[in-house]
Amino acid sequence: MNDVATIPEGYRFNAAGHLVAEAQIRPIDSLRDELVQEVVREAKLLQQQMASFKAKYMAAIADFVDLSANEYGVQFGGTKGNVTLLSFDGKHKLVRAIGEHRVFDERIQAAKALLDQCIERWCAEGANDNIRALVEHAFRVNKQGHIDVNEVLGLRQLNIDDDQWQLAMEALADSIQITGTSSYLRLYEMGTNDKFKQLSLDISKL
After folding, report:
1. For 82-140, what is each residue's pLDDT tens digit?
2. 3-state SS record for 66-131
3. β-sheet with 196-198: strand ranges across
4. Where in the chain are the domains?
5. 3-state SS assignment for residue 183
6. pTM summary value
7. Which residues 6+ apart lie within 8 Å of 175 measured at CB?
8. Residue 58, CB half-sphere, CA atoms under 13 Å: how many?
């Protein structure tokens, strides 16, 4: 990153990191730069406001959950778990969701090996090969080179009575590691069709 203090008066860095005299910058390039910088400045302020908004009301929701639980003598801390709050007239809804970041450790390789052995054995016995396509689909990697946890765990929904398959499912469960959590605050408003519509805070969807 270029240090502003090192820029000589009357010069600016271009995108390639080269010093350019301001007198040599075309007016249209200066106007473009001013527009971009103005939008970015305003966006950063908006970003800070949204972060403050989220922190404020996530804390308020957590406090309310604790307050509600206290009516029954329960104290568990309101920062965990998903919560839905409805307005008295039922026209607005708040949803606090806590999502876990899950990854597989090295035991996923053992699970995959067990599944492959199951499939080879079943196919040798004349079973349908569709199960192979299902497993390969679940274990495909995304653009980041990672296996989708939810896709793989979907295999556990299959009701297959086979000891080796069940051992593979156990290896799948044991291989999951929780690396962190993310919190989400979603706001909804009742629409004219009596269905909730999310109030978008994503600028690209406004």
Report:
1. 899 999 999 999 999 988 888 999 999 999 999 999 888 888 887 777 788 888 888 88
2. HHHHHCCCCCCCCCCCCEEEECCCCCEEEEEEEEEEEEECCHHHHHHHHHHHHHHHHHHCCCCCHH
3. 83-86, 92-104, 176-190, 196-198
4. 1-79, 102-179
5. strand
6. 0.69
7. 104, 105, 106, 107, 108, 110, 111
8. 18
